[in-house]
Amino acid sequence: MLSWLVFQETVRSFGVPRIGTAKSRSIGKHPPLGNEEEYSGGKSRGRQVMAGDQSRKWMVVAAAVWIQAFTGTNFDFSAYSSDLKAAMGISQVQLNYLATASDLGKALGWSSGLALLYFPLPAVLFLAASIGLAAYGAQWLLITNRISLSYFPVFLLCLLAGCSICWFNTVCFVLCIRNFPVNRSLALSLTISFNGLSASLYTLAANAVGGSSSTYLLLNGVLPFLASTAALLPILLQSSTNLFLSARFDADHNDSCVFLLLNILAFIIGLYLLFLNSISSIPSNARMLLGGAILLLLLPLCVPGVLCARDWARRTIYSSSLFKLIGVEDLDLQKQLVQSSEDSSTHITIGDPDINSDDDYNDGTNGEVAGQSSSYSWFSWWCMYCDGITKDRLRALGEEHTATRLVCRIDFWLYYAAYFCGATVGLVYSNNLGQIAQSLGRQSQTTTLITVYSSCSFFGRLISATPDFLRGKFNFARTGWLAIAVVPMPLAFFLLAEAVDMHALLAGTALIGLSSGFFFSAAVCVSSELFGTNSLGVNHNILITNIPLGSLLYGLLAALIYDANGKSMGPMIILRDGMVVCMGRKCYAKTFFWWACITLIGLASSLALYLRTKLIYVRVAPPQQPREQIFQSNRG
């Protein structure tokens, strides 16, 4: 009854009379006699309201893209870490603690959700920008010898910088979920992917101003503030209506097509930055390339104009035709209803009680599920022997979990281990790129390695949207895609442990960036699918506590091996304050081997998670378009 009332109020808000009234019985046949102009005018006003909401939500996508593109400031840590280490005169272990502090700020991500309860979203956005500006600005003053700070204040500054990144991410998540309640996974994958381009954009900006490595710190504080200012107008103009209800009148297919075009544009931007960054060492070339990149980032603003032009063309073309009183939206809807009526009985939606009963869930003799249950591999049987496959398994996608219930789930801890032993290792690798290049005598190519990692991380994040575009054509569990994404990581680390040339270093960096980028982006959607959307903010922040923990442990492992090799090899290089510099392949070879073994554990955990959850993905057919479901249920 409540859904019916909501539906009627939604229809009425677009200028259509209440269903069931005398005035509405003529809809679908002809307008009431004498009220043709009023009827067509109401429909026109409704379409204009919908078109305005559509334009504004795509402007919000553009704003989220700008925020994400310029706030991935943790990716360029390697560009200035060596200079920061020299300026403070600290050891590799102490430098690792600073990197851990930046990641530890992400564990404070819950504070951004708390701030949104008391402050409007634009205020939270500018508060994050101000925190980042202060934190990175103070570090820039330190590294340029304008001020002097002890170790602990610098640790706190790195903590605040990491916290500001998490606040930016939370703002973008909220924008995507509010404006795309149906296609939020596509919106999240697209916007999050641009976070991987930050290092490439910052490299262009640093080369454009002809600055040193310390310039990165200054840019890390200034550019996010400027991007937040530019994104303010679209955020303030976002629709105030309930887009979950209006989305039911939208063509979900049309949104998917727009997202596909935006993903193609994003792919072009990634190729542009990856292949043309090599010629950006000259300031004039860097300025030209930076200008081109900014123009490409402005192209998503064209989407609202295209949508408005399409809507105007449809109104103009059909206003003088036989379809004057029907409208193209009604024709599209009629086609969809006729097509969906044939297979409506075969669709199963998430939350259907028929698929959540224990008897049906545990029955392995029906249809496709029985065939898949009988095809378990030896790894599946091993997991069953360990009582990990059948014990406390999830019964449906989107099932809500409180924090207490979450930490009692085996699936959560498998997911946590896959993240902790997978993507987090890739992040720690990126933090050590500066020292890795320095130990191999490739310090001049540090920015190249950072650009390769950043760009490949971007492509990995972009590819994470593949399951959504294949929805309805190829039904494969998203947790399975997650397991596939971890596969390149141990291969890359074993390659780095054995090879020393620059080509192997570039190839390994590319594979690690691709794998970790996919995992970072897909993890948000997996968290919402496995543990519910209502508690996504809390649950996902619990999950990413593995990042500072992994940064501490894996970074400490690398730092201890680095310092031990530096003290035991050849003529030892000691800078001021006893700082040891390790040179040679052995500085990180053993670290790469241990990281490869750790990522194998992450791969095993992700495979176990897939085997435990694949049944709930198989049982859920591709969801119908929301608009079809509502109209079909009310026409029956």
Automatic annotation (TrEMBL):
Protein topology in the membrane: Multi-pass membrane protein
UniProt keyword list: Membrane, Transmembrane, Transmembrane helix
Superkingdom per UniProt: Eukaryota
Places the protein is found: Membrane
Chain spans, region Disordered: 22-47
Transmembrane segments: 116-138, 150-174, 186-205, 217-237, 258-276, 288-309, 412-430, 450-470, 482-500, 506-531, 543-562, 592-611
Cellular component GO terms, alphabetical: membrane
KW Nuclease (keyword) present: no
Molecular function terms, GO-annotated: transmembrane transporter activity
Residue span, Major facilitator superfamily (MFS) profile domain: 410-636
Main location: membrane
Listed Pfam families: NFD4_C, Nodulin-like
PROSITE patterns: MFS (PS50850)
UniProt-recorded name of the protein: Protein NUCLEAR FUSION DEFECTIVE 4
Organism field: Canna indica
